[in-house]
Amino acid sequence: MKDMISLEEARALVCGAVAPTDVEEVGLLDAVGRVAASDLTSDIDVSPFAHSAMDGFALRAADIGTATEEAPVALRVIAEIGAGDVFAGVIGAGECVRIMTGACLPDDADAVVKYEIVAVVEGDGRTGSTVSFAAPTKVGSNIRPAGEEARAGEVIVAAGEVISAAGVGFLAGCGVLEVPVCRRPRVAVIATGSELVPPTEVPGPGKIRNSNSYAMAACASRAGAVPHILPIVEDTYEALRAAVDAASREYDFVVTTGGAANGDYDFIKPVVADLGELKMATVNMRPGKAQTFGLVNGTPVFGLPGNPAAAYVGFELIIRPALRTMQGYGFLDHPVVRARLTQNEKNRDPRRIFLRGTLTRAADGVFEVTPARNQSSGLFGPIQKTNCMAVLPDGTEPQPAGTMVDCILLDVPEEVCL
Fold first, then answer.
1. Domain MoaB/Mog spans what residues (predicted)?
2. What is the model's pTM?
3. Could you give the percent of the chain with pLDDT greater than 70?
4. Domain 31-44+152-182, what fold?
């Protein structure tokens, strides 16, 4: 195991150690935002019949082929067809049928002329009236053909596609009410630290509330997983060993926070090494150099730092891609845009630095990013109030105002290409 690896190596290592979860069938509404695990096909042609795209008059295009404003062609309205109705009669010479949007096209008709451009010569435009047309129309005009959207047996959503809200409607129209998807990974979240108390308690001397578990559980939920916040673990090797061993046998992925460095009370690395296989311990990034990963009982176990911002950055950049891999998602990278810094950054650390920042668009149309004043790895507040992470490259070269840098958009879906 290398002493320190790059962020890219860390992501590849963790994503390569996980596999898709088993496939389950879920109801259509529960499938939105999830990945189809197999091809889905339609049971009918959609639409199953040719229908009108608007309110108008169904006719044979040839019957008004000579129509002009000077010499309009008059036709008699012999019937009306509403949505859901079917006209089984015959449209003869000099005849047409009034038709509503979505209604089934009569067999004899090959065009629809919209109501607004048809003049009523006699009557009210309904059955028994006479209407006139001042221009010809094309065969097929204002008609949506049968099978326009899908054919019976055709693949309508391919395996690997993310099902959108519109896709739910498409699948419903094609008779697909159950969707095979990869089961959401069950993620155990364990905060370590003898100083921690639940958020329900007012901290006493030397104590702080456990905020990390809630933030990491929220990150897991936003990644599509099912988080389970487990009890706080005190700072002893034995307590952490027992908690990780038990969680690794019950859950699909285990995330701990705290105890990832090399202090006297930092135990996640020796625990993972003792129970299973330790695969990494440090990553070339700031915040979040101390990132522990390994396998225990065949289950991925990730030890995040205890500092809130460091834990958050590590989760979003390394754990989230792995959880998405387990659910079959093909896009794993948050969208990135280039933006110019609005202030000087000294970049005194040789590691790759992720600054919490606010992205805006300047008057000249170029994105600008303003890093938050307080970049402490111990704070959640600056993350709440910013909308991106500005990336300063590896090395110690200063980055003056105006420098173009990458900005990671954490709240934009990975599928969005910018």
1. 188-325
2. 0.89
3. 100
4. Molybdopterin biosynthesis moea protein, domain 2 (3.90.105)
